[in-house]
Amino acid sequence: MIVAVDSYLRARDGSQEAAAALNDIVAAVSQGHTSFLGLVEQLGPQLTHSDPFARAKGVGVLSSVLLQCPPERIGQNAVNVLVKFYIERLQDQPSVGELLKGLHAILKLDLVTSPDAEQVARSIFAELNVQTYQQTVRHAAFEIFDLLMRKQLPAVRKFGPSFVSDYVQVMDGEKDPRNLLLAFRTVKLIIGTLDYSNHAEDLFGIVFCYFPITFRPPPDDVYGITAEDLKLALRECISATPLFAKYAMPLLIEKLASISGSAKRDAMETLTACAPVYGADALLPHIFKTADDNNIAAALASVNAITLALSSATVSSSSVKSPLETFLELAVKDSIHNFKDPELKYGKLTGKMLVAAASACDPACHHVVNAVVPPILEQCRMQNLPTRQKHLLEILVDFLKAGQDVYGLTSVSAMDLDDDFLNPILSYKDRLFELYIAATAAASEYMPLRRTGIRGLAALLMSRQLLAGQEVEMAINQLNQAIVTDPDPEVRNEAIQALVTFATAKPEVVLATTFPALFHELPEGAGPQDATHVAGILKAILALSATGGLHTRGLQGLLQRLDSVGLVTMFGGSELQYAETLSKTILEIIDEPSLATAPGAAAIDSQDAIPGLAESIIQPVLVKTISASLSEQAVLLIQPRILCVWARILGSVMRVLDATQQQSLLESVIAIFVNDEVERLPGVTRSPQVSFAPLESSTPESQTRLSVLFAAIVCNCRPNVSFGTQDLPAFVDALIVRALRSTDAALAESLAKCAASIINKMKDDAQISAYMQRDIITSLHTAIRDDSPSGHSLRRKSIYICSWIARALIIRSHPAGYQITTEVLRLLDSGEQGTTLPQAGMLCSKAAADAVGIIIHAPEDGSLTRKSFANVKLLHPQRFFGHCVPFLVQGFQHASLVTKNAYLLALSHLLKNVPKAVVSNTLTDLFPLLLFSLSIPDPGLKLATLETLQALLVDSPPAIAPRVSSLIYALLNMAAGPVGAAAGTERDPMNVRIAALKVLGDFPKKFEYAHLFPHKVTVLSRLNVALDDPKRAVRKEASSARNRWYLLLARS
Amino acid sequence: MTDKLLNANPVVYDVGTISNRARRPEDEDESVADPFDAEEIFDLIRHINDPEHPLTLEQLNVTQPELVAVDNDSSHVLVQFTPTIPHCSMATLIGLCIRVRLLRSLPDRFKVDIRVSEGSHQSEHAVNKQLNDKERVAAALENSHLLEVVNQCLLTAVEK
Fold it and tell me: Is DNA repair given among the entry's keywords (chain A) (predicted)?
């Protein structure tokens, strides 16, 4: 025995001899050869040795024996003595590890008395700073606490709450996963058994600081602890008590918004684990008190997630309520009283929360709806205050939407959904339907209530399983009624939206009931009494027709109404306006992108596709307009305003036709308009001596105005449509000659566009170059250069026609286009030369500036753009801009004050039509021009520049930043008038003032504080003048700009 | 914001999404001057945020168009507001926000009086006195923390 002890003490730590000797000692004690106290005696000198490590070794022998010997061999007395001994030695730092091991062993023996156990804990708390020791020591400490919690509860209880705070100290800073697993287990035990209410926050803090767990086990891990183990242990702690709720909820909700997927999932799962424990009490305040919409959304999402997660939790026994029920019951119980005052803030949010829960799954929906809807309905019955009713009904709308989420929309085909699940709202449907119908009825004065009524009907209509055939009809009729009669535009819009949505599900119902009701409101044969009413109805028809499937009937109805007023000769402003709005609505339906891309795809039968409508639209309109113009009756249909819209309609119809259809149409149109073969159109009546020549300048204006229709057909041809047997260049020549001769602006424009469009669509560049050599082009060039007084009218016309041809060439990047452009740009300074006829010179400068506009601007009717199949090269605006800028900058520098305007005008056309990024690249060159344009009286130029500045501010503030100072003063002069201006001085028009203020108001958002700071005092005081502007719209901008400058300065 | 809101669960009023001012043809006419009116002043203050809630003063019915009076000729504006509860300690702050907003948005010829509407606050007199004392308002705005709070409340109004 003594030999064994000696050899152990002499052996090196961890060596084989040491292990063997220890085994001998343990065997001796457990087999009774030596008593335990005998061993202690033998170790005596060692235990009091002066070398601390020798002492530690001695303790180690004892602890190992304690750990391995059967308890009866040690005996109660020895234990009592040993505990005291161990506790006393705790101050001996090097031995602490062995001491704790021994204490752990003793505690395990079940022989320790309660006071001793208490003393153990007390000494550890008092003597040891656990976190300063190595992992094995800390592990032993945690093992001791774990044992104490499990076996010595009475002793621990004597501590009272201080045990918790002391334990928090011990655990604070622990990092080792092995220790943490133990520590978490102890925390859970503490929560389960001790009074920790005063230390809940500390306890929570010490636990939650590990959330979310990001532990990844090292590759050679032998302990087998996974992140999942830790997560579970931690989650059990967090979800152990409702007292944690108020600390955990905000943090968990914040973590829900985390970017890391695993953190998010962890937060979600933890929330789900916590929800049944924390109860709705804890959840609600976070939904109510959240300061911003993002948090509300996150909170609602978590409610939804919790509900969904709980619904999949299985019930362990039939007597116990499922966790889902427990959770929902709590949620409902805690929130239902909020509905008593539905207009309070909580009322709304409660509704939202319950809806979020209900929309999670079928059982939840049943539970919540059955619990909540009846009391809300009861409230509705008792409350007849419209404001309250409105809020309650709004909450019910949300429940209907939750039902849609769970049970599907009307539009989804029945095949895709399971009819085993019944929408719980079905039981309350009748009452709901009644309520919404009543709310919608015009009798209720309160607009938001009517709006909610409409939303309710819309939600009912779109919910599967809810409304039966007759009810659907009633609901639709109510919506129709609202569109037709409701005085409030918001309500009408809501109703239109409801019908549009329903039309995607059941177009036939809308077709059968809504369209007749709407068309009933459109008068026939005369203008409407109330133009705004008709405009509203047309808006509804347009919205519905755009949904597909309904456009045919919409167009038919509109065309029929238009016919009824089109041939009226006695008409006033209201009829003209009516015809124009009807025509514009037709145009918008045809232009609806959803119909053009998928013609007839959603239509009831495929013949309704737009191309099929060509005949029904183009042919009749040509017949009617031509007849009218031949008979020289000033009927409504051929008023220029109406014809202009119809030209657009013909253009749109042309674009959806294919090449063969276009070909035949084009042939007959050329025959009719050029060769007077009106007989091709059956139904046109004319007296024999009258000829139809709308493209000749000699014919009366009533015929030439039809040239816009001709242009609409010609300009929208596909490139492979041929102009028949005609000699194409000669045909174009003829068009140009006619344009040159015409005195009518509309005719000239139509003809020039036609010519330009044909040139643009010529097959190859060589063909174009050949055409550009023809006499007619040469003579145009000569006319442009001719600055003799007699030629100036022809000169301007030539510039006009040339600019159209130049556009045709520039957009397909043909070099000839740039030749013409250069020629035209040279004319910008003709104001200088024409000393004999200054007026004519100025006009020529202006014509040249306008030519730049024609070249770069894409016409609204779509001709000479991609829409009308023109040959358009990428980046042509950039190239053109680059071509023009040097001319403009140089010309501007040398120009006199009078002609500077022409340069600026040309520049303003460019600025309006090229991408702003291009402008910002050349800003250094252009800036003097821009600044100058802000100081001249012409409001058009100022507006163009201000618009450019605004766009530049959005895209590239750095380009402007260095020039801020000079700009600010120019802007202030426009916004508030020049400094010290006399009272009667002419101010800039209001739209210029508004635009200047807008730019000024954008500055604080776009520029560094340092750039603006020097101007702060001036800006604020000068804007004070603008605050007193006579026009309200200007004041509004001024106050907004000034407030922004104030806020900017507050940032300092 | 403190944990305990003074009035955590206020009544939320429905407000129109669009300005209720009817458009008139003369709005575009340069030669017709538009006088300041109550609605214009109300438009300036309706979107100010409440210091406690993410709701506007209009939504809480603190400001109402009927409680704004304008006299163009004598350049005088009177704005009254109604705190949501009579013991609201935020009343002065709300008043200060309105005051600052109008200081920045109205020409300086106007004298602006801001009051708590009669009987709506228990220390009505004190609040009124504070809000209409030029020096005290100026002193309040010297306090950078307070100015920060005010600017925060005004942010929503400016961007409308």
Answer: yes
